Amino acid sequence: MFEKVKSILVDELQLNESDITPEAELVNDLGINSLELADLVMVCEEKFNIEIKDDDIRKFLTVGDIVEYLSNAAD
After folding, report:
1. pLDDT in tens, 59-68
2. Could you tell me the residue ranges of all domains in the chain?
3. Other C-beta atoms within 10 Å of 35: how many?
């Protein structure tokens, strides 16, 4: 799942692949703004055929948080 999320971050947000780790903070380390986060959520919803609630989006602080959420949603 991490590789899938990493691929989305690289393809959709043009982030540097080497910067993306499970511990990387979306805002502080990767510089993702709220609009980019919204785009990321929409892409994840489409690719994984799930709905991510607004309250859950606020919990996405690191790449690992997204990976964990998507892994749990896929079960």
Report:
1. 999 999 999 9
2. 2-74
3. 8
Q: How far apart, in whole angstroms, are the C-alpha atoms of residue 60 and residue 48?
A: 17
Q: pLDDT per residue over 27-60, tens digit each?
A: 999 999 999 999 999 999 999 999 999 999 999 9
Q: What is the secondary structure of 29-51 as a DSSP string?
A: TT---HHHHHHHHHHHHHHHT--
Positive/negative CA dihedral, 60, 66, 71, 75: positive
| Domain 2-74, CATH class in plain words | mainly alpha
9 residue type, one letter: L
The C-alpha atoms of residue 65 and residue 59 are separated, in whole angstroms, by 7
Q: Which two tokens stand for residue 67?
A: 């990976």
